[in-house]
């Protein structure tokens, strides 16, 4: 019922020629399996060039962030229609790096969420606790708050098409993956939160990806868990061989 989604977040890496080479190499390792979805999220300037490489392959294109207004005097920002014109269908929202480094608040994340949904694109909402929050026993509370805040003003039909990525901050770029059990438990908790907000159908239908040091060695074990519907991959998505192995997980 929930189609697995394997997504690569390239973060601030790759020039345009490098991005095109990487996209070509990933495409070469893609089996075109219709039972799973694959998404690449390159930096903004690489979107259109990568889109030209992906063509009709079925691999989808996503942005790493956006500005919630349609247009105007917002120097340096990129709008939803700009992303659409570059070939995007998905947008990552509320990544922990955006929250921590660029000061994105829960309410700004909610505005971005509504902007993506009202433009009929798919948001990948990132949530996740810090190590200090986990040690203090606050992980579930923090994640519940982030999910509820981002869903403010989001109706049931929009919630159904949204994707959530649980990315514990302590697992991002550290090589320390959450165990499959830790991730599955938090995903089940997120389903309970969604159930409280929207009811059982949304709780059962929304795809929840895990992110944080996913690689070609741990992906199979993570994907065996019933509540894990895919992966949002950082570092390992920059290596074509690793990412190809991840998208072809067993
Ligand atoms: P890493 O896979 O490098 O830990 O990054 C995860 C991430 O932040 C994906 O959005």
* Low-confidence runs of at least 5 consecutive residues: none
Radius of gyration: 17 Å
Count the domains.
Answer: 1
Instruction: List each distinct ligand once.
Output: 1,3-dihydroxyacetonephosphate
Q: Got a strand count?
A: 8
Query: What amount of the residues lies in strands?
Result: 5-15%
CATH superfamily: Aldolase class I
Range of helix content: 40-55%
Bulk shape: globular
From the N-terminal CA to the C-terminal CA, the straight-line distance is 18 Å
Order of helices and strands: EHEHEHEHHEHHHEHHEHEH
Largest beta sheet: strand ordering:
1-2-3-4-5-6-7-8
**What is the CATH-assigned architecture?**
Alpha-Beta Barrel
**Helical segment tally?**
12
- Pairing-aware structural class of the strands and helices? alpha/beta
Q: Please state the average pLDDT score.
A: 97
Describe this structure in words.
The protein is of the alpha/beta class. The protein contains 12 helices and 8 strands. It has a single domain, classed as TIM Barrel (Alpha-Beta Barrel), CATH 3.20.20.70. The chain has an 8-stranded parallel beta barrel with strand order 1-2-3-4-5-6-7-8, surrounded by 5 helices. The mean pLDDT is 97. The structure holds 1,3-dihydroxyacetonephosphate (13P). 1,3-dihydroxyacetonephosphate (13P) binds next to strand 8.
């Amino acid at each position: 019922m929930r189609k697995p989604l394997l997504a690569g977040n390239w973060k601030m890496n790759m020039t345009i020629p490098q991005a095109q080479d990487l996209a070509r190499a990933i495409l070469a390792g893609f089996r075109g399996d219709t039972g799973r979805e694959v998404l690449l999220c390159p930096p903004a300037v690489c979107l259109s060039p990568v889109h030209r490489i992906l063509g009709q392959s079925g691999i989808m294109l996503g942005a790493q962030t956006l500005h919630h207004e349609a247009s105007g005097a917002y120097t340096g920002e990129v709008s939803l229609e700009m992303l659409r014109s570059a070939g995007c269908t998905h947008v990552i929202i509320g990544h922990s790096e955006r929250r921590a480094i660029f000061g994105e608040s829960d309410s700004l994340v909610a505005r971005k969420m509504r902007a993506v949904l009202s433009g009929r694109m798919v948001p990948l909402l990132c949530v996740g606790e810090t190590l200090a929050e986990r040690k203090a026993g606050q992980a579930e509370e923090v994640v519940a708050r982030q999910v509820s805040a981002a869903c403010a003003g989001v109706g049931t039909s929009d919630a159904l098409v949204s994707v959530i990525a649980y990315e514990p901050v302590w697992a991002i770029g550290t090589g320390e993956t959450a165990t499959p059990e830790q991730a599955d438990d938090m995903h089940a908790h997120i389903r309970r939160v969604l159930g409280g907000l929207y009811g059982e159908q949304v709780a059962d239908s929304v795809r929840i990806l895990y992110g944080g040091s996913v690689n070609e060695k741990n992906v199979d074990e993570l994907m065996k868990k019933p509540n894990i519907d895919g992966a949002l991959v950082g570092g390992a998505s920059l290596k074509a061989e690793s990412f190809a192995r991840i998208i072809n997980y067993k």
